[in-house]
What we know:
This protein has 14 helices and nine strands. By secondary structure, the protein is an alpha/beta fold. The strands form two sheets. The chain has a six-stranded parallel beta sheet, with helices on both faces. A three-stranded mixed beta sheet has the order 5-8-7. The radius of gyration is 20 Å and the shape is globular. The N and C termini lie far apart (41 Å). 54% of the residues are buried. The protein binds nicotinamide-adenine-dinucleotide and fe (ii) ion (FE2).
Amino acid sequence: MDFEFHTVPSIVCQVGSAGRLDAILEKQEWLGAVLIVTDPGVRRAGLVDPSVSCLTAAGRRVAVFDDVVADPPESTVLAAVEFARGFNPDIIIGIGGGSAMDTAKIVAVLLGTDQPLDLMYGVGAVQGRRKIPLILIPTTAGTGSEVTPIAIVTTGATVKKGIVAPQLLPDMAILDAALTTGLPRTVTAHTGIDAMVHAIEAYTSRHKKNPLSDALARRALTLLWDNLVPVLSDGNDMTARENMLLGACLAGQAFANAPVGAVHALAYPIGGIYHVTHGLSNALVLPHVLRFNLAAARTHYRELAHVVNAGTTAESFIEAIEGKCVASGIERRLRDVKIPHNALGDLAQSAMLQTRLLANNPRDMSLSYAQLIYEQAW
Ligand SMILES: NC(=O)c1ccc[n+]([C@@H]2O[C@H](COP(=O)([O-])OP(=O)(O)OC[C@H]3O[C@@H](n4cnc5c(N)ncnc54)[C@H](O)[C@@H]3O)[C@@H](O)[C@H]2O)c1
Ligand SMILES: [Fe+2]
């Protein structure tokens, strides 16, 4: 079997590691000034403090850009780049959820090039090499962005576009579960389901699924499946938090190589137009897309049923994943998040523009099927 698999060169997984960044950087011989890219919520929660303190104590010049907006619009990214140019860092560190990490990735790339942002969208469009080290520290257990060569930007008012390029893959991902214990319950649920969707969609990815992505997806799904409910009932359970963080990271490595499909394609317009969180947008269409995919992915879903002890059939797997969504207490229908019925046609039109993702779906999507799926999800 021919395949390619790429991931980050280094992963550090250790409770408290964000407060030992100085030693970690020194060991890698990453010297000089550090720019931390984050968002106001993460900053307010004190999650950047351990890193800033230890780096400052080690005599480093440190600046924090904390104006990242969720589902970052281009204006956020460009403001971060301008801030970075003023500070002139030697190292970029993203601390936060996917929004902060994705912004950090693009800043690290844009700092070393004159290529305009709007020419970077799509697959492999970034030119030149990244010039400075990039380290990502997730504070949600969801996107897996710390190990993907992907950054998602909201362009115009509502359209989410991806930049997919090897230059976005960081030099190191640091998994510090202590940063996730304060993650609010709803964010924990939404981001945890996003990570599960990464594992499931990687496992059924049409062209690039391979033995390594499969192994990672299976292990990721087990970790996320077994730990989501425990972590929702006790957010301070450090073992469960670490398992979620690891699960999200493994799922990220899987879908970085075996890309996601129609669940994400149909979720993006929901997030883009109605500002429903990325994870919840996925959860709302998830069971309906999986049922649509049954005709092409039955064997894979049956295998996943065995992986998570959810019976022996593809149908029992889909029922169990619906049960997981119910147990996590999230909204279940598009109408619950105030999406009007007359918007479904526009959502379907918009989802069909996500051709990069739809190409990975095990079953061909069409406008009328997309509309039907939104109808079922409504
Ligand atoms: N790059 C990729 O591979 C990839 C993959 C999937 C999704 N994404 C993108 O990532 C973004 C979503 O990221 P996300 O789901 O991680 O959410 P997010 O980064 O948008 O953060 C959501 C909220 O949670 C808060 N938060 C984060 N960590 C916290 C913590 N530990 N304690 C308290 N509050 C905390 C943030 O302040 C923010 O308000 C979207 O733009 C999505 O499109 C990227
Ligand atoms: Fe996702």
